[in-house]
Each structure stands twice: as structure tokens, then as C-alpha cells.
Amino acid sequence: xxxxxxxxxxxxxxxxxxxxxxxxxxxxxxxxxxxxxxxxxxxxxxxxxxxxxxxxxxxxxxxxxxxxxxxxxxxxxxxxxxxxxxxxxxxxxxxxxxxxxxxxxxxxxxxxxxxxxxxxxxxxxxxxxxxxxxxxxxxxxxxxxxxxxxxxxxxxxxxxxxxxxxxxxxxxxxxxxxxxxxxxxxxxxxxxxxxxxxxxxxxxxxxxxxxxxxxxxxxxxxxxxxxxxxxxxxxxxxxxxxxxxxxxxxxxxxxxxxxxxxxxxxxxxxxxxxxxxxxxxxxxxxxxxxxxxxxxxxxxxxxxxxxxxxxxxxxxxxxxxxxxxxxxxxxxxxxxxxxxxxxxxxxxxxxxxxxxxxxxxxxxxxxxxxxxxxxxxxxxxxxxxxxxxxxxxxxxxxxxxxxxxxxxxxxxxxxxxxxxxxxxxxxxxxxxxxxxxxxxxxxxxxxxxxxxxxxxxxxxxxxxxxxx
Length: 468
Prior knowledge:
By secondary structure, the chain is of the alpha/beta class. It is built from 15 helices and 19 strands. The radius of gyration is 25 Å and the shape is elongated. 35% of the residues are buried.
């Protein structure tokens, strides 16, 4: 991204003319080695444009887990704001007003698009915008931003990003994220013509668990249909950490098409960058029970009925060791079992829960919950990890079997299926409490389809109940 800076008389660098193609002219001259240009301005003071890596306008890189490697954002050396067929203008749906704090390449391009293709009003406090865009009744250059604008329909583009997509609705975000949400298909196309492609594929990272896989495969299918592209998976027999053939015994994923080949199938360059978009994340309730094979669903229903029958059950998910060692931040920083226990006790007293169904991969959390809730607690046989073991780089693999007073005898030793058992059973509970934002939270709410009496998502720094 190019930022607008004052003319630096002490620096020798090439000079470009201020024209509608200014940023494209600069991008063609390799900003990796030539990152500053003087600009000759026929309508005002000369100025400089300076190139900044887009990775510097997202979360600090040290917030990403070690197993995820940069870059985490597209550089956008090639894009075409005139090719609206390959832009996702749906990003602006529901927006009535747009405010941006900094005049730069991306806010200039987005303002042009908004004024030309929408009815959105634009506000900024930088007169230099008029060097790039002619006066317009919907372009408001002001001394301060209006306070009376409806926040629910406001797109606020920050100068500096705090952490993540700030409001969870993609209405408060940095210039780079805003631009990426609109131009993401052009990043994937990399200068190629959309009409040449019928399919699209995403390499799902090898660390991906079943919750993420199911949620995102469905989201990809829905999202890319907007561009008449069918999502397929061409991952050499692997889907995340699992063998694809094994997953297809349990889930109706529909991942292949015989017509897909290297010539007609787009490949998404980065799973991580794709997930940073409303294009994907904005799709609600991304899976439902239709994704489960009938045989597998019947097996899980039998299991739930055998454990609980008609008892009133509170589902609890506590993500622990994996999220701690990955260094998750924001609302993905999980609450501990100790922090969750007071609410659970309160709900038991108020709403009369007879059982607690616990899903956790954290052995310490399991032991604490046992000590707090005793025979009320039921948990599936599952691989449990202690944080101390992970910190010593020693993975343990111990399967445990819990059951309530011998009500149901079965040991599950397939962790691929076992984790989904837990998610499905959580979705059948009367109410649900989760330690924070995770793919499991999304999957459980999607499978439940708004049937919970109440649900709550804990997050450090977030006190209000999570909503459906």
C-alpha cells in the first residue's frame, strides 16, 4: 500500500505525475526495491508516495501461532478497480456512511468505487482527497467527523489497526483489510481473466481440525457461488490433518468434480488471508445436519440418548492447551475452567440443569471440572493434553472413558470422529457455554440452529453474553 507523505527534498527518487493511474504506475516499478516516489502535482503541492508492506497493517506478526508462516496478507501489486465483475461489492451491503482516518492508496480507491457504484456518503478530514477525486455531493471533507451517524450502518476505516477485525462485523477495520475484502478475488486471479475459470480450490492447512474443515468447506461453497465458481478440493487425499476418504465415511462434503483440472480451477494462494474476510466469515450458520451421513447421525443420537435420556443438560466447551500454546489473542484467548465455574454454578441453580456435558482437550480443565461438579459431569473418551507436557514438547496420547453411573458403555478410539461427537452432543444440549471464540463455537451454534434456551461465549475482556 502507498501512503501519502510530504515532499522530502532531501531524498532523491524518481518522479511520477499525478494521474488517475499514479498508484498503478508506481506498482509496476517494483516497490520491493523502490519504495518512494516524488509526485508532480498540477493541482496542489508536490508530495511523495511511500510503499508499506501490507503485513504491517494487520495484527502484529507475533500474535500468529508459530506453525503459521507469513505473509498473512496479499501485496496487491496487480489490481483493477475498473473490473467490477471481479470485485466483491457485497462488502458494502448495509453501509450508509463511510469514514476513513488516513488518505492513502486504498482509501482513495475505495472512495472512488463507493461514489461510483453505491449511495454511500463518505467523510474524511483531508482536503488532499480532492487532488484525486473531483468534488461530489456525497464526498464530505470536514474538520471533524459527525457524531450522529448510525453506527450499525457505518464503515469506519482506521489509520492503525488495534487487533484483528475489530467489531466482528467488518465495520471497523484498517485500510488493508477494507481493500482486501473488496479485491480478494483479484488477488486470487493475479491478473488472469475470471471467465477462464469454473472452479476454485483452497489448500486447507494440515493443522486444521474437523470443526474448521466442515465449517469452511461449506462457507467456501456458498461464498464462491457469488462469482459462479464451484468449490472443489484437490488436496492429494488429505483434508487438514485427516485422510479425506476417512472423513467421507461420516460427512457429505461433495468436494470433487470430474471436470475440474489445472486449467479451469483457481487456487487460493493463502488459506489464512482468505479467512480474514467478510466474504467468508460473514456467512452465518455455515453447516447443518445435512452434512452428516444418516448412519453417523443415528449413531450419535443413540449415544446422546443413552447418556442423558430426557435430562436437562448444560453443554460446556473449554478450549485449553492448544489455544494457549498457539498464543491466541483477542476473543480467541480462552477463559479458564476456574473463570467459567461461577457462571456454570449460577446457571445450575437458576435453570435446574441435571447434567453437564463437557468437551475439552485440556486434562487440567477436566480435572478441575470433576472436582467442582462431581457426578453431574459427563465427558467423552478423548485425547487429553496437559499444558506442561506441550511446553516440554512432549505430546501424550491417553484415551479416557467417562460415563455416568454405567449408563452407557462404549469407547471411541478414533479422534477424527470423537471430536465431532463432542460438537454434535453439545448442539443437542439445552444450553451452551464456551470458553471463547473458536471453530467449535461456530459449528455447535450452526448445528443447533437457534434451539438453545441460552448460550454464552466467554472471552478475556468481553463481559456480555455471546449472541446467536
